[in-house]
Amino acid sequence: MDTQKRARLEITDRQGNRILSENSPGQTAIATLGGTALSANRGTSLNLDWVESVRVNLSAVERRAATIVTRRTVKKDWQIAWLLRAISSMDLTTLSSDDTDERVRRLCAKARQPIQQELVEKLGIEELRLQVGAVCVYHLFVGTARRALEGTNIPVAAVSTGFPAGLSPLEERIAEIRRSVEAGAQEIDVVITRAHVFGAKWQKLYDEIVAFKDACGPAHLKVILGTGDLLTLRNVARASLVAMMAGADFIKTSTGKETVNAVLPVGVVMTRAIREYAEETGMAVGFKPAGGIRTAKQSLEWLTLMKEELGNSWLDAHLFRLGASGMLADIERQLEFHATGRYSAEYRHPIA
Question: Does residue 78 belong to any structural domain of this protein?
């Protein structure tokens, strides 16, 4: 093993414990990669040498992203199975200025039964008990969502830390996380300070995310990088590594409010950062593309990316989410065409 490789393996978590690629005793495996069992991410100390060594070949990334669209396809029953998997990995989301309790309750009803019962019966998938991955709302509606989802295992995610800009004072952002957890949120989607990335202030970015992680307590931390704002794929890769070192359970592309949101080249860079982190530390981090994903075809592209870059473990909702509520209607239309031979009107499949 070369010196650089050994230096990356011999990193420590925030308590100073050495982390190796194998699972520590007592750690439950949540994924496998290349035959190696991986545990949940506990975070590591900040390895600046690793972060600064990151390089991204833009043309190679773009070529790789293009092959996902042109070289892989699934048809007929296999396509339907993949679309059902996309639904089970979806974070149904409402983050509008005119959100109401009633809209959130309707969204939660859709989360409990994402496709119409008549269609479920036509497809013969009653035993799947299909549900979405999570429901994502503003803090104000966490309690409403929890009550509406009572009796299910669908988690409630709350956007926090001054979403979507992330520019409120750090103390206020941390307090916002704690309030959402106390209200019952099981997942917290936080926004980083993009200026830390622009200025290569990796220690500040790391400390910020560590503070967010600590405030989450038992809740899962999903770190939104705002990739459309980060200017370069190298910045995306570096920010991804720092977020994982700081203990992120998921890294997420976008808030959905940027000019450019989830695109496949960014997905290639982020999933390869996840793979490298897993190979070096033995810990698995989830991935969530969000924003701009609106068609069933796009969901298949993202699922293909996950399978080819990270393997089957990342095809499950505990490690993969799609932030794409608007896509559900198109998936329902594709499922109905498969079952009946006819496309239904989109207005027959409202989200909320």
Answer: yes
The pLDDT tens digits for 193-248 are 999 999 999 999 999 999 999 999 999 999 999 999 999 999 999 999 999 999 99
Looking up residue 95, the CATH number of its domain turns out to be 3.20.20.70
Is the pLDDT at 19 greater than 80, yes or no? no
Instruction: Give the mean pLDDT of 13-42.
Output: 69
pTM, whole model, 2 decimals? 0.90
Q: Are 286 and 224 in contact (CB under 8 A)?
A: no
Q: Which of 200, 275, 165, 233 is closest to 48 using CA atoms?
A: 200
| Span of 8-12, 60-64, 228-232, 258-262 with lowest mean pLDDT | 8-12
Of 242, 167, 251, 183, the closest CA to residue 217 belongs to 183
Residue 274, helix vs strand vs coil: helix
CB 254 within 8 A of CB 224: yes
Domain count, the chain: 1
For 182-196, b where at least 16 C-beta lie within 10 A, e where not — what string? ebbbbbbbbbbbbeb
Of the candidates 59, 84, 56, 101, the residue with the CA atom closest to the CA atom of residue 232:
56
pLDDT given for residue 352 in this prediction: 53
Q: Which residues are catalytic?
A: 189, 252, 288
Query: 259: which 2 tokens?
Result: 């000019």
Q: Confirm whether 13 is domain-assigned.
A: no
How far apart (Å, rounded) are the C-alpha atoms in residues 135 and 219?
14
Does 23 reside within a domain?
no
Residue 117's SS3 state is helix
Cα-based distances in Å from 21 to 40, 141, 250, 274:
12, 40, 19, 14
87 closest CA partner among 308, 254, 322: 322
Q: Which domain holds residue 107?
A: 49-348
Task: Give the bridge partners for 32, in sequence order.
Answer: 37
